[in-house]
Write a structure and sequence with these properties.
255 residues; alpha/beta; two-stranded antiparallel ribbon; binds zinc ion
Length: 255
């Protein structure tokens, strides 16, 4: 029996080392090889929800001033079912953004438009920009969404940004492995060329906290996004905003 158990364990280990993701050292926000929590959602681009009049192109920064927060002030409410430590992680993400941009997160008093941060079991997701009235930004505790990096990522969606790999020039920088993408999730990897968004002249940014990692929406643990230019090691990072992330926010809000 013991021999059988040892053989079973060895064969499991053998299988693991043969799995393709062992060749990569990319680790997601939780330190595990694989997609980030915001790269496994059910919505448009994993973690983006659209209003009825936003069903257009995902690139990087939404252009229409209609979606901007007035004076770069974003009132917010954090739902009562987050613990004190969750709350401080979320507020830490806000502090990070405020430290390097002119965005101001303020606890909501009577403002009509605000972000309400909730903990439903529907993953990590946000709307893009200010959609009016109370807009949900969801950070599922059980979905692994309450980390400083993922909270920052979702808050930047609410500020007005899409994902970095939707950039109109992205095919010069990444190869999309369509054959490895979970069926039905291909739309997460499309590129659009219209007047809806801009990168504010910052250029492509592998290191953006808004860029997918190599295993976003993988169906088989082979990479779905392969960087094809140098200096891509940080692709998919959820640690902190890149300098280009910061620059783009400040340009969007004329800081
Ligand atoms: Zn996202």
């Amino acid at each position: 029996m013991k021999v059988f158990q040892v053989i079973s364990i060895l064969s499991v280990l053998g299988m693991c080392s043969a799995l393709p993701f062992q060749r990569s050292h990319h680790r997601n926000v939780t330190g595990v090889v694989g997609p980030n929590p915001d790269e496994i959602g059910e919505f448009f681009e994993g973690d983006i929800r659209f209003t009825d009049n936003q069903q257009i192109a995902p690139l990087t920064g939404i252009l229409d001033q209609y979606w901007r927060w007035e004076n770069a002030v974003i009132p917010y409410v954090i739902a009562a079912d987050f613990t004190a430590s969750h709350r401080s992680i979320i507020q830490g993400a806000m502090t990070d953004i405020m430290a390097s941009t002119c965005i101001r997160f303020v606890p909501r008093s009577t403002e009509r438009d605000y972000v309400t941060i909730q903990n439903a079991d529907s993953g990590c997701w946000s709307y893009i920009g200010r959609i009016r009235n109370a807009q949900i930004l969801n950070l599922s505790i059980w979905g692994g969404c309450v980390s400083r990096g993922v909270a920052t990522h979702e808050l930047i969606h609410a500020i007005g940004f899409f994902h970095a790999q939707g950039d109109v020039n992205r095919d010069k920088y990444v190869k999309i492995h369509w054959e490895n993408i979970t069926p039905g999730r291909e739309s997460n990897f499309e590129v659009y060329t219209n007047d809806y968004v801009t990168d504010y002249g910052e250029g492509y940014d592998y290191g953006s906290i808004m860029h997918y990692g190599p295993y976003a929406f993988t169906k088989n643990w082979y990479p779905t996004i392969e960087a094809i230019q140098p200096n891509s090691e940080s692709m998919g990072q959820r640690n902190a905003m890149s300098q280009k992330d910061i620059n783009k926010i400040n340009k969007m809000y004329n800081c």
